[in-house]
Amino acid sequence: MLHIHFGAGRLGLGLVIPAFQSPTTESVILNRAVSGANATGNTALGAERRNALLRDNPEQTYHLRILDGAEAPTQRVRYAGFHTYADKGLGRLTRQIVGASAAQHRGVVVTASVLKRENYGPVIEALCTLARLREAGEPIGPIFLVACENTVSAQEVLAELRPADGLTAAGAAVLRRQVTPVAALVDRMCVDLEEDASGAHPTVSVRTEPYASLRLGLGPDTEILRNLCAGSGIGFGRHLDVEKQIKGWLLNGTHWLIALRAFQASGGDRAMKLNAFMAASPEERRHAIAVMDEMREGVALLLRRDPAYAAFVRDVDVDAYLAGRRPPSSSVSSRPRTRSPASWPASRRRRPAIRARSRPSAAASRTASTGRSPPTRPRRACCPRRRAAAC
Average per-residue pLDDT in the chain? Predict the structure, then answer.
């Protein structure tokens, strides 16, 4: 299939493009020619240089540097092309990408990690071009939109088309007929972008944690995605709304409980960092693990008692799900994760939903051993939350 992704930031390069890698997928990356202020913090690699590296690399590859304790293995990620764009003029570029593709007849998945709904204008323009081409009989398969940000859904983007999107009523009708929105949950801590000059050609390197998950919602209109994404790292689920709620409970509840203990133990020190607090005492790490276990038990009780979650309980083994064992509907790990508190970075950002590690103590040990937090604001999936004192 043809995969077109908008956004060459940390999450796009660190999670979305790698997740869609498969022998039958062509991934094309698009990014603004002139980037605005970065709401998630600057990276070591500037936007202009990043664009040049992705555009000019003859091998069309970049690297993931997996931060796993003392080791930092490198993973190679390939892509079929990189293009920059302005706010308008996506129609011609989209036709160019389709014309150069050998996979568009199977289907086209457009993904975006552009932070806010108001940044989706170019994405809408590209989708409109694809929709018109398909409606005119061009050999283009089913078209899907995936918003890779848990505070903006593809359903919302298509349901709330705006005057700024530049659509006529007829164009909006074609778009909605031809484009299927897909619910998604994304999760990976993507720390920074750097330049990697270790090979024959300099390229981009993304520093990430080992864990990664990108899950798409399954339904009658999206079942075909199983085949289109075969061989990739994409996972699937039929209850992503419930999973998002579970992850919010696990992450936020655990976060607040441990942060409160750190705040009290430090005498109200607002500069206290959880990683330093956890590394200072094995007893505190044991307490954090116990909190995680109790949170999972509480979530399991809530799910079973509340009729609103009856379908999830019917279809999913709740205990196995919360313990981290994979349900049959997923091709990659779909467990909810409560990140070990010692690994929470000093700066967090928006979005709901993360997952509970089945071995939180190992994660805590890894971060505690480094004794440091990531230097920049990581691009990841987490909910908007007020900062606890210990974070």
Answer: 83
pLDDT one-digit tens code per residue, 132-166: 999 999 999 999 999 999 789 999 999 988 887 88
Q: Sheet of 26-32: strands edge to edge?
A: 81-85, 26-32, 2-6, 108-112, 143-147, 179-182
Q: Beta-carbon neighbour count of residue 282 at 10 Å?
A: 10
Q: Which of 312, 318, 328, 77 is nearest to 212 (CA)?
A: 77
- In the chain, which stretches have pLDDT less than 70? 36-41, 275, 325-391
Question: Of 200, 168, 347, which is closest to residue 273 (Cα–Cα)?
Answer: 347
User: Position of tokens 């859904």?
Assistant: 153
Contacts of 295 (CB under 8 A, 6+ apart): 249, 250, 253, 254, 257, 338
Tokens coding 260: 């409160």
Which one, of 121, 159, 353, 151, lies nearest residue 237 by Cα?
353
Contacts of 179 (CB under 8 A, 6+ apart): 127, 130, 131, 143, 144, 145, 158
Q: How far apart are CA 163 and CA 342, in angstroms?
A: 45
Q: List, for residues 81-112, the tens digit of each pLDDT value.
A: 999 998 778 999 999 999 999 999 999 999 99
* Residue written as token pair 């999107």: 165
